[in-house]
Structures are given as structure tokens and as C-alpha cells.
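Shapes recur. Our protein:

. . .
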Amino acid sequence: MYGRLITLLFFILLLAGCKPAAESEVTAIVGAVLIDGAGGPPISDSVVLVSGSRIRAAGPRATTPIPAGSEKIDGSEKFLVPGLIDLHVHLGARAGPRFVAADYTAERIRKNLNSYLYFGVTSVRSMGTDREAGLEVRESQRNAPPGTARLFTAGRGFTAPGGHPSQEVGDIARQPRSPAEARSQVKDLAAGRVDAIKIWVDEVGGRLPKIQPAISEAILEEARVHKIPVTAHIHSLADTMFLLDRGAAGFLHMIRDTENIDPAFIARLRNLQIVFAPTLVRQELAWLLKEQPRWLSDPEIGRAADPETVAAVKSFAASLPSPSAEAREQFERAVRNTKSLAQAGVPIGTGSDGGSAFDFPGLMLHRELEILVEAGLTPLEVIQAATRNGTLALGKMDELGVIQAGRRADLLLLRANPAEDIRNLRKIDRLMLDGQWVDRARLP
């Protein structure tokens, strides 16, 4: 009896000395200017509380009490934004002049994801070139903290037999020859629990076959049965309208064949909150690469590609013919259309096409953000595009992309104000992923 009393007293004293987990494990980021990603004005002298993997509270210091025992992080003279989201990547490649199928391994996928994370990209959506290794990496994140940039995947996407991007990556994309075959392949993707489905609808200036409308329609119908959103790589206004009429949930790249876009169609895009990730950096590459753009000498390019790949890209760029006037005009048309859609209230997302030829993971998303500012969006609008609007495309509006109670704690603490210069998003003082601080210097 006496022994039981001693044991009971021991546990009472032990419990008395323990604070509740909600209080003892809170991180408080205090004094930063908060840019929450939702589009509201920045909040000076803020407090953001993180408990576990989630944001517990966020707001002005005056109205956001800090629990006793919290770990305090001094955010004074710094700026806090959500982790960035890249809606358009291709994992498992070196981003060199040519695609090499043997590069596609789980190890390289994780290396790519670490490159994104180093540059502040905490979530990526891999669009259409993932095989088993990509699905395995994504599945491992579902069962544990991500440990690197959070991965969403469309598995293997759809194109026409011999259509884009088969000229670059071979037969990685599915190439159904009938609506029935397409439906069967959508069922296979559903069984693999993909997060999205990708369709390429682009004849590349008439040089390649384009997926047949009946097959696109079958893909969209079957995807709807399985409740999987379909995002399309597009070029023309007519294809974009056709796909939207049949239920496409989002678009990659921008309409490039015309600027004469019906205001009623733009209104539909806005009302349906269809996210366009214009991927302007890819269009810029089509005419700028020969000029050896400044990012090829970026001091941090080694975080995105190995030295051999960088050297190969520089050598290849020097050998290119002079860019055509049409390539530059298509880029400028895409920029103008992006501005028009954004001004009309169509949600713009951010995508880099990172991992495709010459397109370095993580680094190139920051060039995309610069181009969006050059197109006429404000830095705050671009931050919203790279955060909140990304969650809209991912179907994760309650999980990611905004610094708000209940969402995942993916945070960038910056040394300079991105609302003044979007390039300041690269001036990362500290990075948090899923509630854990990341040592960027030690990312493999």
C-alpha cells in the first residue's frame, strides 16, 4: 500500500512539472512584418504562433497573446511570408540541354525537391512526367513529415501519339489512340492516387500532332468520375475554351495565339476561379537563352544544378541560332494576356516548368516572379499568386499558402521587404517547413 502511494505521488509531481503540450511546444515569431499571402495589407509588429506542424495564431502583437514558455524568435526588421508554391515542375531531370531517362530516380527527385526548398519553394506540383519513383516519393510524404519540398503529382500525363512533349522526353506521356483507351488510363492514374491529371494540347506551331478533341473529352469525363482535377498545357484560345467547357480545372502556360479574348470568357474564368500558371519564364527562354541571361551566372545556381549541367547549358546556348521575331512576340503576347487576365480578377498562379531543358529547379521560379512584376502585377499580387492562389489550384485552401490559424506552418522569414522588391523573396533568413526549421545550408 505504502509503495503504491509513493508511486502515485511520483506521477502527481511529474505531471505538475509538465506544461500542456500546446503551451510548452509553441514557437512565437515576434515583431516581423507579416505578409499573409491572402492579399491583405501587411501587418507591422506581428506575432505568429506555431504549434506542431500548424499555425496556431497570427496577427498584430497587441491582439495575439504569446503563451508562457513559448520559444521566441526575434522577427524585428524582418518580413514573414508563406512558403512559395510552384504549380508546374518536372522532377527527376538535370535541366540540361537534353532529357536523359536514366536520370529519373528517387534520389534525383529528392535532390530536385531539396533545390526547390533551398529557394523557399515549400510545395511543388509535378506535371505529367512522373513514373513509379515519383509516386513512391509522394506516397512517403503522405505517411510522415515531408522532410523536403511537399510533392503533388499528376503521374504520367496525356498527349497525342507523337505529340508534344514526346520530341523531348520520349514516350513518358501517355499517348492514347481512342477515347476508350484514354478512359482506361485515367482509371490507372486514379488507382495510383494522383493529385491531378495533365493534358498537353499544343501542336507546337503545327510541327507536331495535337491530341484529338474526343480523347481530351474522354479524359475530362473520366477524371470527373474519379474527382481528379485536370490541368492542361495550352497554346490557343480555341483549345482553352473547348477544355474549359468540358471541365478543365486549370491551365499551364498562357494563350499565345491572340490577344482578342472575349470578355465573357474572361468573366467565366474569374467566376469559376480557374487558375492560370502562365509559366512565362519558359517562353522567355525560347528567345533569351542565346543571350546568356544573367541567371546563368547566378552565385547560387549550384543549388539548382551541378557544374557540368550549367556548363553544358552555357555551351548549348552559345550554339543556338538567333531567336526568331515570332518567339519574342509570343512571349510578349503571353505577358500582355497575363496582365489582362490578372486585372480582370482571374487568379494567376506561379509555375516555372523547372526540370525541363535549361530550367533550373527553384531558381527559375524566382525569375517567373520577376517577370510577373514586369508584366504589371504588384509585388503583393505576385506573392499572393505564389502562395494563396497555388493552394486554390491544389485544392488545399484550408491547408497551405496563407499564414492563418489552422494551416500548415510553411514560412519564410526574410531579411528585406518583398513588397518593395520581389527579388527580396530570395533573402531568406530562416525557413520553416511543416513547423520545423530547416537548415538550408545543409540541404543535400
Summary: Confidence is low (pLDDT under 50) at residues 1-24. The radius of gyration is 23 Å. The chain is about 35% helix and 15% strand.
